[in-house]
Amino acid sequence: MKTIHIQGIKGDSIIRIGEAFENFKKYVPVENVVIVTDPNVAGYYQNRFPPYEVIQIGVGERVKTLDTVQHIYEQLLHMEADRSWFMVGIGGGIVCDIAGFAASTFMRGIRFGFVSTTLLSQVDASVGGKNGVNFEGYKNIVGVFNQPEFVICDMTVLKTVPHRDLLCGFAEIVKHGAVADGNMFSYLEESYQDALSLDPDIIEKLVYDSVVIKSAIVNRDERESGERKKLNFGHTFGHSIEAVSGVPHGEAVSVGMVLAAKLSEARGYLIKRDVERIESLLKNLKLPTELPIHKKEMLDALKKDKKRKGDCIDFVLLQEIGRAILEQIPIKELEQILMKW
Ligand SMILES: NC(=O)c1ccc[n+]([C@@H]2O[C@H](COP(=O)([O-])OP(=O)(O)OC[C@H]3O[C@@H](n4cnc5c(N)ncnc54)[C@H](O)[C@@H]3O)[C@@H](O)[C@H]2O)c1
Question: Is residue 307's pLDDT more than 80?
Fold first, then answer.
């Protein structure tokens, strides 16, 4: 097992990569524990849950709402939970985002940790302390920064993740390589076939390298006032694609990265060869690089981006593979690239 530390403003987080799922109880410091999970994860792994209270939420992006958070609060009250309780989110990015938010706000905050069960969640969603839900069509617009005390990443649970959801995790791994580590990107170009077949050594290395990249950035800029924004590469277009098309987050980010790479080329930063490398790696990883999307609807969704400042959006561009920069881009220019697409 390898551990990586994040020092948050409100508390620290230890990410344990290669730790066994059921060992999470070693890291729970109190007796009263409530698990938040979804029916798919419970279906596969409930027999490995210790005898704690369990709250089940639904599945999919449509449950990432305040209604689901309210359901969790109601269940906690019903269990007579108090501030001494500890919450463990066991699931993918959706369970972790919701459980982290519910724990951070119930009784002004109870302690919490995650057992992260999808590739996307292990390499990205469960790491870094962003917890929140969607509201009125705005993605992740209501939320808090608050670090989980632990994140357990057990690679063996990835075997049961639906194939399409597994591929979504690779999109965020590509993102980490693209913005911060050209060597990791090249490694994935060489080893994508073994990665797709979940070769244990390769997948553990990719999860570890991704978490190293993300946690180093979070340690320097937890509140996303600067450098952390680079981790949104592909996400401005991605979130609007997700909102309009309903495809899973990772697929939308995959298409969003291609568009952002093309914009980086159009702005004179990225060479054509690197745009092609990004497209080709995503295709090799069986991720979409284009989708049939209604452009006007996508533009409307783009205008709802959290990173919008007046007529501009904080946008992540690439200078080369492994080096990202931030620029304010007029929405008009994004509209032009969309229309050309
Ligand atoms: N907080 C952050 O920093 C951050 C970063 C990236 C993404 N996200 C969020 O993460 C979410 C996407 O997360 P996701 O891709 O993990 O989706 P998800 O949580 O919906 O999980 C995908 C599917 O896999 C199932 N599942 C989970 N683990 C399983 C397992 N081990 N075996 C079998 N089935 C399993 C789930 O029930 C679900 O049907 C999005 O809402 C996105 O906004 C958050």
Answer: no
Q: What distance in Å separates the CA atoms of residue 29 and residue 290, rounded to the nearest whole number?
A: 46
Q: Residue 107 — φ and ψ, nearest 5°?
A: 50, 40
What percent of the chain lies above the pLDDT cut of 70? 100
pLDDT at residue 200, rounded to an integer: 95
Contact 247, 288 (CB under 8 A): yes
95 C-alpha to ligand 1 centroid (Å)? 7
Q: What stretches of the chain show up as alpha helix (H) in DSSP?
A: 39-45, 66-78, 93-105, 119-120, 163-180, 182-196, 200-220, 235-245, 249-266, 272-284, 295-302, 331-340
User: pLDDT by residue (tens digit) across 157-211?
Assistant: 999 999 999 999 999 999 999 999 999 999 999 999 999 999 999 999 999 999 9
Rounded CA Rg of the chain:
19
pTM over 0.90: yes
Angle at the Cα of 312 from the Cα atoms of 339 and 232, rounded to 5 degrees: 85
Cβ-in-10-Å burial (0-12, 13-18, 19+) of 52 comes to: middle
How much helix, strand and coil, in percent to the nearest 5, is found in the chain? 55, 20, 25
Widest CA span in the chain:
59
Question: Do you know the residue count of the chain?
Answer: 341
What is the atom index within ligand 1 of the atom nearest the CA of 60? Answer: 20
- Residues contacting ligand 1 via CB (< 6 Å): 38, 40-41, 44, 59-61, 64, 91-95, 97, 117-118, 120-121, 124-125, 128, 130, 140, 157, 160-162, 165, 168, 249-250
Alpha carbons 305 and 129: distance in angstroms, whole number: 20
Report pLDDT digits (tens) over 117-128.
999 999 999 999
* pLDDT category of residue 335 using cuts at 50, 70 and 90: confident
Could you tell me the pLDDT band of residue 338, with boundaries at 50, 70 and 90? confident
